[in-house]
Amino acid sequence: MTPLNALPAEGVPAETILAELEALRASDLPTHGGRLFAYVYDSGRSGIDDLAASAYALSAHVNGLDPTAFPSLLATENALVGAAARLLGGGPETVGNVTSGGTESLILAVKAARDAHPDIAAPRLVIPATAHAAFAKAASYLRVALDVVGVDPKTLRPSPTGMAAAITPDTVLVACSAPSYAHGVVDPVEEIAELAAAAGVRCHVDACFGGWILPYLRAAGVDVPPFDFSVPGVTSISVDLHKYAYAPKGVSVLLHRDGALRAPQYFAWADWPGYTMVNPTITSTRSGGPIAAAYATLRHIGDDGYLALARATAEAVRGLADAVADVPGLQLVAPPETTVVVFTSVDPDLDLFVLADELTARGWHTQPQFRFAQSDDEFDLTSLPRSIHLTVTASVAPRVAEFGQALTEAVAAARAYGPAEVPQAVLSAVGSLEPAQLTPEAIAALAGSLGFGGDGGPLPARMAVVNTLLDAVPPRLREALLTAFLGLLQRPA
C-alpha cells in the first residue's frame, strides 16, 4: 500500500479525500451482509447507519468533559443509562455512565472496587479462565493481582465453590460473564454472586458481549438463566451498545446498583491552577457523537424491534449449529445457548485453521481460537481445543443455508489441502526464543519467512501456517510475538 500523506503542502478538495477513503475501505473486511462473524454487529436493517451517522454529526463536537455545558449530552447519556438499567433489572437507585467500550467499562468496574478499599495494600480480582482478556488488562493497568479459576472442560463454566475458594481477605472484586465471549456460555451468576456477597466482596457481571440481547432472547423463549440486577449479590454490570444494540462503535454502559458503589469510579483533582477535573470515565474529553448515535439507534429500533432482531438471531444460531452438526468431522464445543456457535474438528485430517482459510476464500470471515491449557486444583490439567468462533447477528439469518453449503465445500477443500505445517526451521527458531529476544529485525525476518510483505504486511492469503505456529507456542511467547508484529505494522507513514 502506498504511504498516505495526512498533511499535504496544499489542501485537498473534500470530494477527493472522500474518494480516497472509500478506496481504502475497499480492502477492509465487510461490515455488513452477514459474512463477518466477529468484530462488527449488523442488524441487517436499512436506514440505521444513515440515521446514526446523522445523529453522530449533530453532536460530534459536543464535549463530555463538562456535561453541564452541554445539557444535550447529559440528557442523552442519562437516557441510555436508564434504558440499560431497566433492561437489566435495575431499580430506582441504579446509576451508571456511558464509556467508550467494554474494556473501559471493565477497567472502571475494577477501579471502583479497588478504590473502595484503600486499606487493602495488595488488592486481588477473581475471574474464571473464560473471562474476557480485558480483565487482565484492567489488572495490569491498575496493579491488581489476578486470581484465575479454571472452568469445567465440558460445561465451560467455573464452579461457584471454586470461585469462592479463590476469595481472600484482599479480594476486592469477583467477576463472571453473561455470556463468555469465546463460547457464548452464561456463568452461574446466581451462585457466584451469593458467595461473593457472603464474603463481603463486590460481584461484577460482564454482560458487554450479550447483555443487551439476553433479555430479548428470554422473551423470545430461550432459556436464559438469571444474570442481572434481579440477582441480589450482583453489584455492577457492563453492557456494550455497539454490540447487540447495533449502535456504532464506541458506546458501552457501566451500571452500579447504587451511587455509593459507583462513587470510587470517579476521578477528581483540584490541586492545580486550572479547572477542577472531575471525570466519571477514563477519558476527559469525550465526543458526544457516539452517544447521540446510540440514542438515535435505540429510539429507532425500539423494544419491539430488538425483540424481532433477537428472534432472527436465535433462528440463525439454530441454523448454523445444525449446519455444523451435519458435517462429519466437526463438533460443537458448547451447546449454542446464546448468540455464539463455536466448533472444533475431531478429524485429524481436517485442520481447523485450514478450514478457516477455505471459508475466507469463499467470502466467510470467521475467528479462529487457539487451544487453551488450564491447570486448576479442581479440574487438574485440562485443555480446551482450538476452535472456530462465530458471533451471530440478525443479518446472518437470511444466509444460513448459504453458509451451510459453503461450510461443506470448505471442509472438503480443507481435507484435500491437508493439515498446515510450520517449517521445522521456523518452529525450532521461534521455540528457542525468549520474549526479550524478539527484536524488530527478528520479527521482520520471521514475518518474511511466513509470507508477509515488507514491514509485516500485507497479510498472506492463507493464515493457517501462522495460526499453527501461534497455537504451538506458550501464551507468553504468543503475546510477545503478536505485540512485536503489531509494532512492526504501526509505523508512521
From TrEMBL:
Superkingdom in the source lineage: Bacteria
SUPFAM superfamilies (alphabetical): PLP-dependent transferases
Keywords: Aminotransferase, Lyase, Pyridoxal phosphate, Transferase
InterPro entries per UniProt: GrpII_AminoAcid_Decarb, PyrdxlP-dep_de-COase, PyrdxlP-dep_Trfase, PyrdxlP-dep_Trfase_major, PyrdxlP-dep_Trfase_small
Known cofactor(s): pyridoxal 5'-phosphate
Family membership noted in the UniProt record: Belongs to the group II decarboxylase family. Sphingosine-1-phosphate lyase subfamily.
GO molecular function: transaminase activity
Protein name: Aminotransferase class V-fold PLP-dependent enzyme
Keyword presence, Transferase: yes
Pfam families registered for this protein in UniProt: Pyridoxal_deC (PF00282)
